[in-house]
UniProtKB/TrEMBL annotation:
Transmembrane segment boundaries: 36-55, 62-87, 93-114, 121-139, 151-167, 179-199, 205-223, 235-254, 260-279
Residues of the EamA domain: 6-138, 148-274
Taxonomic lineage of the native organism: Bacteria, Pseudomonadati, Pseudomonadota, Gammaproteobacteria, Aeromonadales
Protein name: DMT family transporter
Keywords for this protein: Membrane, Transmembrane, Transmembrane helix
Coiled coil spans: none
Keyword Cell membrane found: no
Length: 291
């Protein structure tokens, strides 16, 4: 298995694991600031346990190896989390998803400017097609919203793209341990804003533990390792599949059927991804022949 295949599989598996995020958020009935607070607190524990399981008695060295670059990744991941959750609070969810879908474009531009990475034409076309497909999925929910909410969503998109690009800037160094530090930043910032910690009910706490202690730490650990093998724009592009998978899970378990435009948008995203995978495969097969 070559590096690109490994990066694709790690990222795709991570996206698959976090895809119940939208469904579980519908089931958790607590104020949004408390949701972010508990998300940060449980993420600290979940990400740290994964680091200890992977590195055992050398777990602290994994943090030291990340250095200042890892600190930047943690801060940018924090901005992404806060922007996404609070953006949904201040503006329409459709606005947030459309703006967040621009993260592959932002990552591609950041990688071009700071890392000198070029993307093939078919990757650019896939990014544009997926952005169009995501726009169709959320068209009914999109609207003018509020300037504050739209800016928070843009902060989430820039934070996500910046985090993955920064992780890509230090080849061979795994930045996923720093996600535990991001959980700490998220918890402290939200606590400073809300000023209290509210204990959720048993059912809500159960969903929080499943999502924030298990699924998100495992999924985002895999995704954060993606830039070790793939350009950050391609990792961001694969993450758009979460919107499609999340919509399907909400439809399956809560009977919230997306409209025809939503189904068309999901099909466009999936077909764009499939076409990109096929073209990537052909490029890899053609490389030895050219050599």
């Amino acid at each position: 298995m070559d590096a690109r295949q490994k990066g694709f599989l790690l990222t795709a598996l991570g996206v698959l694991i976090i895809s119940p995020d939208a469904l579980l958020l519908r089931l958790i009935d607590i104020p949004p600031e408390q949701l972010v607070l508990w998300r940060g607190l449980l993420n600290i524990i979940g990400f740290w346990l994964i680091v200890v399981a992977r590195y055992r008695r050398h777990w602290f060295r994994a943090y030291l190896a990340c250095g200042k670059t890892g600190l930047g990744c943690a801060l940018l991941f924090t901005f992404s989390t806060l922007g996404f959750v609070l953006g949904n609070h201040f503006t329409k969810a459709g606005n947030v998803l459309v703006i967040l879908a621009s993260s592959p474009l932002i990552a591609a531009l950041l990688s071009r400017v700071f890392l000198g990475e070029r993307l093939p034409l078919h990757t650019w076309l896939a990014i544009i097609a997926c952005l169009f497909g995501i726009s169709l999925i959320v068209l009914d929910d999109a609207g003018s919203g509020s300037t504050t909410g739209n800016l928070l969503a843009l902060m989430a998109a820039v934070g996500l793209a910046g985090n993955l690009t920064l992780a890509r800037s230090k080849p061979g160094t795994d930045m996923s341990p720093m996600l535990a530090l991001s959980g700490l930043f998220t918890f402290l910032l939200t606590f400073a804003w809300s000023g209290r910690v509210m204990l959720p009910g048993a059912v809500d706490m159960g969903w929080l533990i499943l999502l924030c202690l298990i699924l998100l730490p495992i999924g985002f650990t895999l995704i954060q390792r993606g830039p070790l093998y793939l350009p950050s724009a391609e990792v961001s592009l694969l993450m758009l599949l979460e919107t499609v998978l999340g919509t399907l899970l909400v439809w399956l378990f809560l009977s919230e059927r997306p409209g025809n435009l939503g189904l068309l948008g999901g099909a466009i995203v999936l077909l764009a991804m499939l076409a990109k995978i096929i073209l990537d495969r052909r490029s890899l097969n053609a490389a030895p022949a050219r050599a």
